[in-house]
């Protein structure tokens, strides 16, 4: 049974031609995010990476991570600025590998949108590629999917996956953490890419603020503050693990500081963090005040100014802080590790 009318894929809301043009626009940026091991370029059905270099490892362990950037994309869409969200994606992916000591090798991305706007897609990929270049990660491929009817014309979401490698005897983790270790904090660039459902509710629904509002505490507009890209810790953390003895690292993302650090704290020890050792950036206190949110609830959702931590022997603490400073990362001694029962139950992280 037919209607007598001709219908095309474009009539259904999917433009193959615009998708092809988006690929052409993004190629210049993808070319900047490569490594010698990459075979071929984008456009194939799969990205290729020469793994023969793994023969130099005694026992190579592959590490993988998959993630997205959450509702921070809503800020990028409202501001119509799309070239920074890629840094958030790469940060969420690659720095999850780094905490186990793994060097990132390659990354693939996935962009779902209601309508392919080639310039917008190219801007998103530009950010991803620039962040990949900064972290030494090859962008070997990805997918852009047009979902009319499921997403609005100006809506999109981004996600990805990444793979890295670490020598088995250099694997970092809870089994290395000891009584007498210290916790080194690395400053975040702001909210990073977590807790935006709470942050958006506070600023937009409760306070009624607009993105173009100048906020003296921030020294910039609300929108500029909320769109600040996630700091990338990849190269500083790898350099740290090469230079000094490091026992564990923790990427402070969803769940906050204590919960993420607890993931690398064994039952044989407890950890005490000194809240007086740092002052969180203004955005965290403003969110708390506007929303009437208690500190413990802020701790559960936001990084509170600490984007990454390292657990290492006390005798290398000063050297670690100096090395991170040379890599442009503000760092300080945040806490200490004691035996189970010293500061809390085994595996517990508490604030002093």
TrEMBL record:
Q: What keyword terms does UniProt attach to this protein?
A: ATP-binding, Cytoplasm, Ligase, Nucleotide-binding, Purine biosynthesis
Which biological process terms from the Gene Ontology are attached to this UniProt entry? 'de novo' IMP biosynthetic process; adenine biosynthetic process
Known pathway: Purine metabolism; IMP biosynthesis via de novo pathway; 5-amino-1-(5-phospho-D-ribosyl)imidazole from N(2)-formyl-N(1)-(5-phospho-D-ribosyl)glycinamide: step 2/2
Q: What is its main location?
A: cytoplasm
Task: Indicate where this protein resides in the cell.
Answer: Cytoplasm
Superkingdom field? Bacteria
Q: Where is the PurM-like N-terminal domain?
A: 58-166
Write out the GO MF terms.
ATP binding; phosphoribosylamine-glycine ligase activity; phosphoribosylformylglycinamidine cyclo-ligase activity
Family, per entry: Belongs to the AIR synthase family.
Q: What is this protein called?
A: Phosphoribosylformylglycinamidine cyclo-ligase
Which organism is the protein's source?
Answer: Aeromicrobium piscarium
Q: What is the lineage of its organism?
A: Bacteria, Bacillati, Actinomycetota, Actinomycetes, Propionibacteriales
């Amino acid at each position: 049974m037919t209607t007598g009318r001709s219908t095309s894929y474009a009539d259904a809301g999917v433009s193959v031609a615009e998708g092809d043009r988006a690929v052409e626009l993004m190629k210049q940026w993808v070319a900047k995010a490569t490594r010698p091991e990459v075979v071929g370029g984008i456009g194939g059905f799969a990205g290729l990476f020469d793994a023969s270099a793994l023969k130099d490892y005694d026992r190579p362990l592959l590490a993988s991570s998959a993630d997205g950037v959450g509702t921070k994309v809503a800020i990028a869409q409202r501001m119509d600025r799309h070239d920074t969200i890629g840094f958030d994606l790469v940060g969420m992916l690659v720095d999850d590998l780094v905490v186990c000591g793994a060097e990132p090798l390659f990354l693939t991305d996935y962009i779902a949108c209601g309508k392919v706007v080639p310039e917008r897609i190219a801007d998103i990929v530009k950010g991803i590629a620039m962040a990949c270049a900064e972290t030494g990660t090859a962008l070997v491929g990805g997918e852009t999917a047009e979902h009319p009817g499921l997403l609005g014309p100006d809506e999109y979401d981004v996600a990805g996956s990444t793979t890295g490698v670490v020598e088995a005897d250099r694997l970092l983790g809870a089994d290395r953490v000891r009584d007498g270790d210290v916790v080194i904090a690395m400053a975040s660039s702001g909210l990073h890419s977590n807790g935006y459902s709470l942050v958006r509710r506070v600023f937009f629904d409760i306070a009624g603020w607009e993105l173009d509002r100048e906020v003296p505490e921030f020294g910039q507009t609300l929108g500029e503050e909320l769109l600040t890209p996630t700091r990338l810790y990849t190269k500083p953390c790898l350099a740290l693990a090469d230079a000094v003895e490091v026992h564990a690292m923790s990427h402070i993302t969803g769940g906050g500081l204590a919960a993420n650090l607890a993931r690398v704290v064994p039952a044989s020890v407890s950890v005490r963090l000194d809240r007086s050792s740092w002052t969180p950036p203004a955005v965290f206190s403003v969110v708390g005040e506007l929303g009437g949110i208690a500190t413990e609830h802020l701790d559960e959702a936001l990084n509170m100014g600490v984007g990454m931590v390292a657990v290492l022997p006390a005798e290398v603490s000063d050297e670690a802080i100096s090395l991170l400073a040379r890599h442009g990362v503000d760092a300080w001694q945040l806490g200490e590790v004691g035996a189970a029962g010293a500061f809390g139950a085994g595996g517990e992280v508490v604030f002093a």
